[in-house]
Amino acid sequence: MKMLLFLFALLPLGRLVWLGMSDGLGANPIEFITRSTGTWALVLLCITLTMTPLRLITGSTFWIKQRRMLGLFCFLYASLHFLIWLALDQGFDLDAMLHDVVKRPFITMGFLSYLLLVPLALTSSHWAQKKLGRRWALLHRLIYFIVGTVILHYWWHKAGKNDVNIVEIYATILALLLLCRIPSIKTKVQSLFR
Amino acid sequence: EKLAATANPLYSSKVDVTPYKSATTYNNFYEFGTDKTDPAAYASSLQTRPWTITIDGLVKKPQTLDIDALLKLAPMEERIYRMRCVEGWSMVIPWDGYSLSKLLSKVEPLGSAKYVEFISLADSKQMPGVKSSIIEWPYREGLRLDEAMNPLTLLTFGMYGELLPKQNGAPVRIVVPWKYGFKSAKSIIKIRLTEEMPKTSWNMFDAHEYGFYSNVNPTVDHPRWSQATERRIGDSKGVFAPKIKTEMFNGYGDQVASMYSGMDLKKYY
């Protein structure tokens, strides 16, 4: 099962490679792969955050055991998204990059989101989890904040052409997923399915 | 369908023209949807005949002209223009048409006319995107009269030696190569000469992000992104070719800069 999830999470990357080799990335391939990796990072963020509600509903810890891998896939797609921007959009021009990060709110939010994901990815191992103890859980609550910066990043990107419907859908899904974490709602959900 | 046009040597190109496939499958034409591939997918429902343009407002001879009359109004030229989108990408496209000034002279603008307004078709039966409320329909654009009369401003009926594909603004559009692409209104049904500056669609949406002039200007950034560079679609150097530097007035300064002498282009962006 875990292997299946692993392969499933690799599919979007495989698709990009396949499209790249068969001339299927359209007229603006760089834009295509930038947006695709960004979208899949977001989808995997949603899926990762779905594991806790699934545990509440099913009572099975199976879901929680998948969370690390899914979170790391989210980080993989976010890294690709970030590296494509760095290398192919900014051409490793650090000055231009810093200028963009400071001046443009949507870039600021994207950059901040990635920056905050890094410590979560670095401390994802069992070893780090043990080492950090209670602080680990505290640190990983950062993801709730990242949800906000990610949605702002996407929102401000799309707002330039007033094309925010899709962002509203993701924002709603993420809001519902976060709501499940509020203690009172959490117990309600649990009792509903028992 | 082929469209006979004589190449105008003043507007040839040293760089490769964009592949036809890219220019006809990567379009912004919100009347057919917001995705770049939507226009090519959904524009087939557009009826381009019969088609008329009504020209009125501050003119001596207001009139409605049929598309066949428009096609014959002046000799058809092929001009290769650079096209710079406000989003930061660009193409090099061979257009077929003639200077808009030929049409405007025919209707004889009055002395009081200062601006030209262009209205595009907005018919939700033919254009699925018009059902959304992303911008206020119909799409409208505008130029100052001297900009509209500048020989560069092309009333356009074709590209790549063919009648315009529907996703590219068939059957008739304008092309204003020194301004960001959205100034070049597609599928035009009405041209009105006015004394007041006309309201334009993207400016109405957010005046802070989209100015009336919207001249290509690498020194004035869009609030969300830099305009200093652009990605040339179908760059012959390959997919990973670096972005190229954006030129003032998209490189047409010799022909147009004098129209803006003394104007603060940071203020009138």
TrEMBL record, chain A:
Keywords: Cell membrane, Electron transport, Flavoprotein, FMN, Heme, Iron, Membrane, Metal-binding, Transmembrane, Transmembrane helix, Transport. It comes from the Bacteria. Residues 37-147 form the Ferric oxidoreductase domain. GO terms for biological process: protein repair. One of its GO terms (molecular function) is FMN binding. Its cofactor is FMN; heme b. Heterodimer of a catalytic subunit (MsrP) and a heme-binding subunit (MsrQ). This is Protein-methionine-sulfoxide reductase heme-binding subunit MsrQ. It comes from Polynucleobacter sphagniphilus. The gene is msrQ.
